[in-house]
Design goal:
Blueprint lengths: L7 H31 L4 H5 L7 H4 L7 E5 L3 H17 L4 E6 L2 H7 L7 E4 L5 H10 L4 E5 L5 H9 L4 E6 L5 H7 L1 H8 L4 E4 L2 H9 L7 E3 L14 H10 L7 E8 L3 H14 L4 E7 L5 H10 L4 E3 L15 E3 L6 H6 L3 E4 L12 H5 L4 E3 L7 H9 L3 E3 L3 H12 L2 H18 L2 H13 L4
Parallel strand pairs: 1-2, 1-4, 2-3, 4-5, 5-6, 6-7, 8-9, 8-12, 9-11, 10-11, 12-13, 13-14
Helix pairs in contact: 4-5, 4-19, 6-7, 12-17
């Protein structure tokens, strides 16, 4: 990695970037402290965003190779799990640091066995990034999907720390914005050591933004390398009991929903109940803090519900017509395991969709809306093998859920078709690990 002198104009651009961020920090820091407190974040944890780390927190890194992996939120953390596991297996004596931006991502990351230290990603101010690299001597920086932080990457280059973008993607929505800023992005992208992109379109797009062609590889998608033990029938019964989902009621899980989608799901649910279907809805807002708004919506519709966090206080099983409102994180796979079918949100509203492969992994038929820009290739694959269905509105959702609940054989066929995709498209993690080993020299 070369670290020659920068042109004066680039230094000026970084100075202006720093100035703008510093002005923004006057608002963002107080806001971050207040928001963090509402999530139970301590001042010490907020200090991580400014590059302040207690010595005891860093003690486990001393004398080891350090691999810093950055995954912005829950989706990226889940996608990174196969890579984190592979890093730890390949370099058992190294330390893996995982950073996140969001509270939900951080909460999920803290429970991962293959992570030695979980931190909040620092503000991208030059003095903050210098402090971070001074305290944590990194051997490799791995950025999951698409996160471009100029000062962090610049500091890594100055210290000859290779930076690799893995599982990279450039969405339809973000590509025009990035292309507009190409002249500013190109010098930053040139500092990366390698780009492992999900598909050909992503590879072409990152090259169009200024990434050197010789550094770009098409690796495939980590999400096809997700591994999870599918519960045996006896385990499913135990999970149902844990969630108070006893009886013969069918379970419909609506996961990762956003504002505007809960109303659509509830309209379909009430229509299904009015047809006499014996079923229970499990509603999982993408962000747990939205459960209050979802609860108010349920109350306004006179739909009885129980919060997941309050289930221990319930001395009976949930009944048909009730809703389990999930205000916890890290339980999605268990919830999918007990479902007859799954709807994945962020797709009926223009958010870009969420990961539909977790449901397919558990052989569940999966429904989603038309806004799957962030998972376009995966959605198209599922549709092509008839492992999933696209719905457009509450009426369409109602008809398709009704059809699947009335046809167990169709549910099984769809679930098996979606699951078969994993065998066909696995291998992104192994490919990416080979690229990383070239940069860190194989086993230590």
């Amino acid at each position: 990695m070369t670290c020659g002198p920068e042109p004066v104009w680039r230094a000026v651009v970084y100075l202006l970037y720093d100035l703008i961020l510093s002005l923004a920090a006057l608002v963002l820091i107080p806001f971050g402290v207040i928001k963090g407190a509402s999530h139970g974040q301590t001042l010490a944890q907020f200090g991580e965003r400014l590059g302040f780390y207690p010595r005891q927190r860093l003690a486990s890194l001393q004398g080891k190779q350090v691999f810093w992996v950055h995954a912005v939120s829950v989706g990226e953390v889940r996608a990174a799990i196969p890579l984190l596991r592979s890093l730890k297996q390949t370099y058992p004596e190294a330390a893996v640091v995982l950073s996140c931006m969001t509270f939900t991502g951080h909460g999920l990351a803290q429970g991962l066995d293959d992570v030695d230290l979980c931190l909040f990603f620092p503000f991208d101010l030059s003095w903050v990034t210098r402090r971070v690299f001074k305290q944590i001597p990194m051997d490799l920086v791995v950025i999951v999907e698409t996160e471009i932080w100029p000062n962090f990457i610049r500091q890594a280059e100055k210290l000859s720390v290779p930076v690799v973008l893995v599982n990279g993607r450039i969405s339809d929505r973000s590509f025009p914005r990035y292309r507009f800023a190409r002249s500013l992005l190109k010098p930053v992208l040139e500092k990366y050591a390698a780009f492992c992109m999900q598909g050909d379109i992503d590879a072409h797009r990152i090259e169009a933004l200024g990434a050197p062609k010789e550094k770009i590889r098409v690796s495939g998608n980590f999400k096809f390398d997700i591994t999870a033990k599918v519960p045996e029938p006896t385990a499913v019964d135990a999970i149902k009991k844990e969630f108070h989902l006893g009886g013969d009621s069918a379970v419909w899980v609506a996961g990762s929903t956003h504002a505007g989608e809960e109303k659509t799901v509830l309209d379909a649910y009430q229509h299904l109940l009015s047809d006499g279907l014996d079923m229970i809805l499990v509603l999982v807002p993408r962000h747990p803090e939205r459960c209050r708004a979802a609860g108010e919506l349920l109350a306004g519709e006179n739909i009885p519900f129980v919060l997941r966090s309050k289930l221990d206080e319930l001395d009976r099983s949930l009944k048909s017509g009730e809703v389990l409102l999930v205000d916890t994180i890290g339980e999605m796979l268990n919830l999918y395991a007990v479902a007859e079918l799954v709807f994945v949100g962020g797709s009926l509203v223009p958010v870009g969709g969420h990961n539909v492969l977790e449901a397919a992994l558990l052989k569940k038929p999966v429904l989603f809306g038309p806004h799957m820009e962030n998972f376009k290739d995966i959605a198209q694959l599922l549709l092509s093998v008839k492992g999933g269905l696209e719905v457009s509105d509450a009426e369409d959702l109602y008809h398709n859920v009704q059809m699947l609940l009335d046809d167990p054989a169709q549910r099984d066929t769809m679930g098996a078709s979606g699951h078969d995709l994993f065998a066909r498209h696995a291998g992104a993690t192994a490919f990416t690990m080979n690229q990383l080993k070239c940069l860190v020299g194989g086993r230590p």
